Automatic annotation (TrEMBL):
Keyword terms: Methyltransferase, S-adenosyl-L-methionine, Transferase, tRNA processing
First-level EC class: transferase
PANTHER family reported in the protein's UniProt record: 3-DEOXY-D-MANNO-OCTULOSONIC-ACID TRANSFERASE/TRNA GUANINE-N 7 - -METHYLTRANSFERASE, PENTACOTRIPEPTIDE-REPEAT REGION OF PRORP DOMAIN-CONTAINING PROTEIN
Organism in which the protein naturally occurs: Exiguobacterium alkaliphilum
Similarity section: Belongs to the class I-like SAM-binding methyltransferase superfamily. TrmB family.
Entry keyword annotation includes Iron: no
GO molecular function term, any single one: tRNA (guanine(46)-N7)-methyltransferase activity
Pathway note: tRNA modification; N(7)-methylguanine-tRNA biosynthesis
Annotated binding of S-adenosyl-L-methionine, by residue: 44, 69, 96, 118
Function in brief: Catalyzes the formation of N(7)-methylguanine at position 46 (m7G46) in tRNA.
EC number: 2.1.1.33
The protein's name: tRNA (guanine-N(7)-)-methyltransferase
Residues annotated to bind substrate: 122, 154, 191-194
Catalytic activity: guanosine(46) in tRNA + S-adenosyl-L-methionine = N(7)-methylguanosine(46) in tRNA + S-adenosyl-L-homocysteine
């Protein structure tokens, strides 16, 4: 999908210091101070326009959420929603997932969500997939022992690849669904893409995977 450039997005977001964190590296190891509590910290990598993170933050007010979206022209939609409807347990970052260790301390993140990530279908682009082994190593570095990744996609190829990649990395699966909406959990929060693809009759694949505790 082609992104529409919004040259005003950066200045707008930087003016919303209560929502948008422009220098997240300064909060590494101190996110509990930013939120003012000791609640669990969940992050979503690739938040799009924020429907999922907004729904989750509403449903779970005792969890802190961070929306991570690389593109400012997309992330600004999340910030605008949070300005219109304040959510004290949400912050927004525009950073690259490759550098999560620059912004979060070891074990500081309690759960990571990957929703409808770019499948990068060409074999030569495998290293760009958010479930490639180098990304998994980055997630493991910021999660606690036994930390979880919750993953959803409409792309069967990416789903199968991710199952294999995580398994080879040594992770284990606590839940796998090949058609999430057949028996959709009451607490499932749908993303924008999820609603679109489901309406087209496309099955939604979902998994919960955990890192094995290190001895």
């Amino acid at each position: 999908m082609r992104l529409r450039h919004k040259p005003w997005a950066k200045d707008y977001m930087q003016a919303q210091e209560h929502v948008f964190i422009s220098e997240p590296e300064t909060l590494k190891g101190k996110w509990n101070e930013e939120f003012g509590n000791e609640n669990p910290l969940y992050i979503e990598v690739g938040s799009g326009k924020g429907q999922f993170i907004f729904g989750m933050a509403t449903q779970f007010p005792d969890v802190n959420f961070i929306a991570i979206e690389l593109f400012e022209s997309v992330a600004v939609s999340i910030v605008q929603k949070l300005v219109e409807t304040p959510m004290p347990n949400v912050r927004v970052l525009t950073v690259d997932a490759k550098q999560l260790v620059d912004y979060f301390d070891a074990g500081e993140v309690d759960r990571i969500y990957l929703n409808f990530s770019d499948p990068w279908p060409k074999t030569r682009h495998a290293k760009r997939r958010l479930t490639y082994k180098t990304f998994l190593a980055t997630y493991e570095a910021v999660l606690p022992r036994g930390g979880e990744i919750h993953f959803k996609t409409d792309n069967r190829g990416l789903f199968e690849y991710s199952l294999e990649s995580m398994s080879q990395y040594g992770m284990y699966f606590t839940d796998i669904s090949l058609d999430l909406h057949v028996n959709e959990p009451a607490d499932n929060v749908r993303t924008e893409y999820e609603e679109r693809f489901s309406a087209m009759g496309q099955p939604i694949y979902r998994m919960e995977a955990a890192f094995r505790s290190k001895i």
